[in-house]
Design goal:
The protein is of the alpha+beta class. The chain has 27 helices and 21 strands. The strands form five sheets. Strands 1-9-3-5-2-4 form a six-stranded mixed sheet. Strands 12, 13, 14, 19 and 21 form a five-stranded mixed sheet that branches. Strand 6 and strand 7 form a beta hairpin. The radius of gyration is 28 Å and the shape is globular.
């Protein structure tokens, strides 16, 4: 065994990828870089910054490969290929930029030397030039230079030439390469895991998959085929990562964390095969249940996929075709709905999963699962107040959809069921009953949070939103909708609340209708041993978190106002600092974000959620939820002069976990 060390320039590496002389082994995962990361890589090469080294494996044995995300097929290699172990994101990005891939249109501002992805604004501005046009194989730099002379640049002509030359030379930049010769596949997989686990370049599931792929070549293909099967049915979120997590849970019988990847990597091939059979049997029973009984057409509606794991394992532990008693089946669906309503897996989901999966072997698993939720004697119900202040990020979005689906609601444009209104990304389509255009400048001074409240959402297609709703208030366009279908969508019938002036009355009336429908749906599956309406209100000191945006004099401040333990806390955050930290988190990097005069940690936790310390809380949410929360806070920014003063002292008491989905947005008076 030997390690060869050498260097190759970017152009040579791109040519080798095209020729199939550089390929991806099966242990690699998919391409995940975002446009901003690609632009930063090109900028690093342009400025001569280090761009890291590459790790390859060369072997005479047959190795399973996966398709590279380069947009074109690779040729069959004429020589033994190099298998890329470390550097996939960088080389794939460079290939895409230098072959004019539609999703890698990086542009360069010749005047400011800034790189970003192409946009409508950069297309109109002659100061922005596409990197491909300068560094691509058919580039005419002389012609580009001539065009730039008439663009009104604030830099001299020689400097234009220097910058174009530097950009063109990115293809000549060398990468240091290390090539492993004659290593065995399992040893290469171990090296791959070690290389990629130093930071957070790979998730723990990815590392486990690398080990499994080395032990059982072709296993990744089985996972991807299973995922593709469910994706075609609208359950696209049942991806390879989800399946690996399910497989890990199926193998676990003891330990504090059943989802520990160590259990998967230590399992024998026979155990893995048996666990995989459990997962497939479980999915084959659970997905039809969700589709046919609950009427859930897509996983995009399910707030936390973790709630599916106990169901999958319960059914998967039974032989194919085994009869499950109807009351048990309904009870499991009731638990799933209750767990979703109570955001069971919104926090540390592995801890909750461990607790729930251990109860599956109980004499009465439904009762045991409900007990874990704190439901021992009474059922659960949804009240109008539970829906107040909620937006599309709330777990109750799924319940509002189900309330309409079970009432037989149809789309107002084509008359088909609302399950047909799922867009290309798999998300259900919806619109606002009261269009924002009619509310934003109304004398009622409706805030952005009020306008976008869950009670103002109706599940209709894009065609309905454009051709029927448009910018008209509901009193005008609902005349074309039948009374029965308005009722199915839980639209209040009082004429006054369908006018902009009655919008707050509309919210109150629709919350009540939706809450009644949702509770009726829950009751349909409620186990007989639960006595209805015996739930007591939650006790304990109230806690809350509100995010508010303030702008003025060229400055913006995101204000976090928290209440806990009877105390108030206010923190100021520069939104650009938070957005930069979220960008870093997308690449797996932790950050410290200034909050007033102190710094607060923003971290990616073990379950790929983003946690941010704000005063009394460690606030947890997904990257998308955090980005949406910042955007929503500034949709209706308040004057900076009205911004409340931050707290003088740090929070000294013990911090508590708080879910971002429970945070509110500032409402204008």
């Amino acid at each position: 065994m030997a390690v060869e060390r050498t260097n190759r320039d970017v152009r040579t590496l791109i040519t080798q990828i095209s020729a199939g002389e550089i390929m991806l082994p099966e242990i690699q995962r998919g391409y995940v870089w975002k446009a901003s990361q690609v632009a930063r890589l090109i900028e690093s090469l342009y400025r001569g910054y280090p761009a890291g080294s590459l790790l390859f494996w060369k072997t005479g044995q047959l190795a399973e490969t996966r398709e590279a995300a380069i947009g074109v097929p690779q040729a069959l290699p004429r020589v033994l290929p190099l298998y890329l172990l470390d550097g996939q994101q960088r080389l794939t990005s460079l290939f895409r930029v230098l072959t004019d891939h539609p999703d890698a249109q990086v542009v360069f501002n010749i005047e400011t030397e800034v790189f970003q992805n192409q946009s409508a604004a950069t297309r109109r501005n002659r100061k922005w030039i596409k990197v491909y046009d300068v560094a691509g194989p058919d580039a005419d730099v002389f012609a580009i230079h001539g065009q730039l002379k008439g663009a009104g640049l604030a830099i001299p002509d020689p400097e234009i030439g220097r910058r174009l030359s530097a950009l063109q030379k990115i293809t000549q930049r060398d990468f240091h390469m290390e090539v492993l010769h004659d290593f065995e596949y399992e040893e290469v997989a171990d090296i791959f895991v070690r290389v990629n686990s130093g930071g957070r370049a790979l998730k723990t599931t990815d590392l486990a998959l690398a080990t499994l792929s080395a032990r059982t070549p072709g296993f990744l293909g089985q996972l991807e085929a299973e995922s593709a099967y469910w994706s075609e049915r609208g359950y696209g979120a049942l991806d390879v990562n989800f399946l690996i997590k399910a497989l890990t849970l199926s193998l676990s019988t003891s330990g504090k964390r059943l989802a520990s990847v160590a259990k998967l990597t230590a399992a024998s091939q026979e155990m893995v095969a048996a666990g995989w059979g459990t997962v497939r049997r479980g999915l084959a029973r659970v997905v039809p249940l969700l589709e046919e009984k609950l009427l859930i057409p897509t996983t995009a509606l399910v707030p936390s996929l973790a709630a599916l794991h106990p169901l999958i394992l319960y059914y998967g532990r039974h032989p194919e075709g085994a009869n499950i008693a109807a009351d048990v089946e309904d009870g499991l669906l009731y638990w799933f709905l209750a767990a979703t309503a109570r955001n069971r897996y919104g926090g540390a989901s592995d801890t909750a999963l461990t607790q729930d999966i251990r109860t599956l072997d109980a004499e009465n698993p439904v009762a045991a699962l409900l007990s874990n939720l704190g439901i021992r004697e009474g059922g659960i119900s949804v009240r109008a107040g539970d829906l107040a202040g909620r937006n599309h990020q709330s777990p109750y979005l799924m319940f509002c959809y189900l309330a309409a689906a079970h009432a037989g609601a149809s789309d107002w444009w084509d008359g088909g069921p609302i399950s047909g209104g799922v867009d290309r990304s798999g998300k259900p389509q919806y619109s606002l009953v009261h269009p924002a255009a009619k509310l934003r400048n109304h004398s009622g001074k409706y805030s952005s949070a009020e306008i976008n409240e869950l009670a103002n959402i109706v599940f209709v297609s894009e065609q309905t939103a454009k051709n029927i709703i448009g910018s008209r208030h509901p009193a005008a366009y609902l005349e074309s909708v039948s009374a029965s279908d308005r009722a199915a969508h839980a639209i209040p019938g009082e004429p006054a609340v369908l006018e902009p002036a009655g919008y707050r009355g509309f919210l109150a009336a629709r919350r009540a209708l939706l809450a009644e429908r949702i509770t009726a749906l829950l009751d349909r599956y409620r186990p007989a041993f639960l006595v209805k309406d015996t739930v007591t209100a939650e006790t304990g000191a109230p806690k809350s978190l509100v995010l508010a945006g303030y702008s003025g004099a060229g400055r913006s401040v995101l204000v976090a106002e928290a209440v806990a333990e009877g105390q108030n806390w206010i923190g100021w955050i520069d939104p650009s600092d938070l957005e930069a930290a979220l960008d870093a988190a997308a690449t797996g990097l932790a950050s410290d974000v200034p909050v007033g005069d102190e710094s607060a940690p923003l971290r990616i936790d073990d379950e790929n959620g983003v946690t941010f310390g704000l005063g009394p809380f460690v606030v947890r949410g997904s990257l998308d939820q955090w980005r949406t929360a910042v955007k929503d806070a500034f949709e209706e920014a308040q004057p900076l002069a009205e911004c409340p003063e931050p707290s003088d002292d740090q929070w000294s008491a013990e911090t508590q976990e708080f879910l971002l989905t429970n945070a509110g947005m500032h409402k204008a008076a």
